[in-house]
Structures are given as C-alpha cells and as structure tokens.
Design brief:
The chain is α+β, with helices and mostly antiparallel strands. The chain contains four helices and eight strands, in the order ββββαββββααα. Helices cover 50% and strands 16% of the residues. It is rod-shaped. It starts with 5 loop residues before the first strand and ends with a helix. Residues 179-206 form a coiled coil.
C-alpha cells in the first residue's frame, strides 16, 4: 500500500503541505511520476502564480505542444516558496506576445492535458529519484544486517564465556569435594591413631 506523499510550501509566515498526485504511464515499469497541480496548490494558496526552490524559479512541466501546463514536479524533503508575481528571470526572458491574444481559459490552465510525451522529462526525473531512494534503502538494509550479525556474534561469544565459567565452576566444585574427602579421611586416621595411643597408655598404666 502506497503512503500519501506531500509537498511542503511556504508563503511569508504561512507553511502548508499539499497532496502529491501520481500518474501511471505505460512502459515505465512500476515507477509512477509524481506531480502537483496548480489547482491543488491554489486550494491552500489562492494567489499562487509561480514557485521557487532556494531562490531558483521552478518551471511548469511542458506538454507535447510546448506550452506550460499548470503542474510542477515533486521535490521530496524540500520547501518550495510560493510567489504571487512572475519571477524576474522569467520576465526578462519572456517572449513578447500579441496584445490582441485572448487569455486562455483558467479552467483549462488548472486542468491541462497531460500526455506521455509531455511527461518524458518528468518520468526521467522520478526514475532518478526512485533509483537514489532504492540505493539508500539497500545501504541501510546492509548496515542493519551488519549490526545484527555483530550482535549475534557478541551474543554467541558471551554464551561461550558463560559456558566456560560454568565448566570452571564445576571443576572447582569437584576439586573442593576431593579436598573435603581427603580431609575427612585424614581426620578418621587421626582419630584412630589417637584411640590407639589412649589404649596403649591404659595398658601401660595397668
């Protein structure tokens, strides 16, 4: 089951998370590209027009005919700044448009047609991100396995030391028992010797 992903946005003192969308593209294995629609962002930031990451403008994803659909790529673990005016760099590089050109319908801008050809760069971006995440996951699993093996080796060593201590304690007990037996035997001999001496003394006294 896939967990819902979120993109962090910031405008002045306001910081909010916006849900990330996925789009299944045929021929891309199990990798689904992630993107955020301008409409979803405007539900939280109504005046949002453009976005920046670390002071650099973020371009909208291109579609098949070269226009800019109203969606942007997903940047995991990053905070995007929300702008209400067009970035200065975009203004300086903008192409002069005919003053009689009719503005596109806002509903079409918020719901652009996304095709496989328009998302080729986007898919490549997400494939690269997925590869990095999988590599980091494999590294983490390797470290965890190494730690588990070390812990198991230490546990085996500790058990071996405990077995050795028990064995030494048993050997010491056997030796102590032998010493006690010898002491008892010596005491019995001493008692017999003392009894013989007393018996001999009594005979001498008679």
């Amino acid at each position: 089951m896939t967990h819902q992903l979120y993109q962090q946005f910031r405008q002045a003192d306001k910081a909010q998370k916006v849900s990330v969308r996925t789009l299944n593209i045929p021929g891309t294995s199990d990798t689904s590209p992630y993107f955020l629609s301008l409409k979803d962002i405007r539900d939280t930031f109504p005046n949002a027009q453009y976005f920046e990451l670390n002071g650099q403008p973020i371009s909208f994803l291109p579609d098949h005919d070269g226009t800019r659909p109203q969606c942007i790529a997903f940047y995991p673990d990053k905070i995007l700044d929300v702008l209400t005016d067009e970035p200065q760099s975009d203004k300086s590089n903008a192409v002069t448009h005919d003053s009689t050109r009719v503005e596109p319908d806002i509903q079409n801008l918020e719901h652009p047609r996304l095709t496989s050809s328009s998302l080729v760069p986007f898919v490549a971006h997400n494939v690269e991100q997925t590869t990095i995440i999988k590599s980091e996951s494999h590294d983490l699993q390797g470290r965890m396995l190494s730690l588990l093996l070390k812990a198991e080796m230490k546990e085996d060593k500790l058990l071996a030391q405990q077995d050795m201590m028990i064995k030494l304690q048993l050997e010491a007990k056997v030796k102590n028992d032998k010493i006690l037996a010898l002491q008892m035997e010596a005491k019995e001999k001493d008692d017999k010797m003392l009894a013989l001496q007393q018996e001999a003394k009594q005979k001498d006294d008679k």
